[in-house]
Write a structure and sequence with these properties.
Blueprint: H1 2-5, H2 9-37, H3 41-44, H4 59-67, H5 70-101, H6 107-116, H7 122-136, H8 143-146, H9 153-164, H10 168-176, H11 181-192, H12 194-209, H13 213-218, H14 227-237, H15 242-262, H16 264-276
Helix pairs in contact: 2-15, 4-15, 5-9, 5-12, 5-14, 9-16, 10-11, 12-16, 14-15
């Protein structure tokens, strides 16, 4: 119906103009942040403001990496995020397949209890989790940012719903041909589940990269902090240097933006497929 309504050229032009204007409004804060990160400290607070700098100050990025140290914290964030995403995908695939295809006593009850953990506020878990990390000697260690987050009920639910949408005939035919459960999982289910796994990996990346409260509680050494903590330290130490704060924010946001753009196709496919899986 939309295609029939926009048959006239002026209607299409008006629609494209509206969408372009809306997109520009949404992307303008990001453009202003990047432009401000390349200005001098006086140009950022200049009145009236100017969008683009007169001379590019690329040294802002070098300075902000050295003073926090944001470079080390960026590396820590990459390590933590990569391992958390890998853990999310592996554990969710195994658990999702088990809950979707394997018959064992108490399966539905266990799955319901696992999903129930999504309703528990994180504030309730802070004290027991900290006590556990203290018992293991993981306080102020990157291990405390990785191991507790290798499992996700949301990812298990997402993969379970996807696996349930796959016809059982494929699985039964493979089992009759002599394939094991592991063979069915790796040769049939995983190739079909790439969109769902890409969706889960995207969510896991955004979650781990932007995590702040738990690292703030468990990590105190500057050399072991993550990027979100580094931005807070940068703002506390150089509150008047808006150009440096903008440079640090740009470094923190760019990876998430790139990951989303690269995985956008799988992200949309995964959401659409997961939405149809429960039919």
């Amino acid at each position: 119906m939309v295609g029939q309504v926009l048959q006239r050229p002026w209607e299409k032009a008006l629609a494209y103009l509206f969408l372009s204007f809306s997109g520009l409004i949404m992307v303008f804060p990001f453009i202003y942040m990047v432009a401000s990160s390349l200005k001098t400290s006086s140009e950022v607070v200049q009145v009236p403001p100017q969008l683009f700098p007169s001379v590019l100050q690329l040294g802002n990025y070098i300075e902000v990496v050295n003073i926090v140290p944001l470079g080390t914290q960026l590396v820590n964030t990459v390590i933590v995020t990569a391992l958390v995403v890998l853990g999310w995908v592996i554990t969710s695939v195994l658990a999702g397949y088990a809950f979707a295809r394997l018959e064992f006593p108490g399966r539905d009850l266990l799955f319901g209890a696992y999903l129930g953990t999504l309703m528990v506020p994180f504030a309730v878990l802070i004290v027991p989790m900290y006590r556990i990390m203290l018992l293991f000697g993981w306080v102020d260690q990157l291990t405390a940012l990785i191991v507790p987050w290798l499992f996700t009920a949301y990812g298990t639910f997402l993969l379970r719903q996807f696996f349930m949408s796959i016809p059982k005939d494929l699985e039964e035919a493979a089992l009759m041909d002599g394939a094991s459960r592991w063979g069915v999982l790796f040769r049939i289910f995983l190739p079909l589940a790439r969109p769902a796994m890409a969706t889960l990996a995207t969510f896991g990346f955004l979650y781990a990269w932007n995590s702040f409260l738990w690292p703030l509680i468990i990590i105190s050494s500057p050399s072991k902090k993550v990027i979100t903590q580094g931005l807070v330290d940068l703002q506390a130490l150089y509150a008047v240097r808006v150009d440096l704060i903008m440079a640090g924010s740009t470094l923190a946001i760019l990876p998430t933006l790139l990951i989303f753009l690269l995985a956008q196709r799988y992200f949309i496919e995964g959401i659409a497929t997961a939405g149809l899986a429960g039919r």
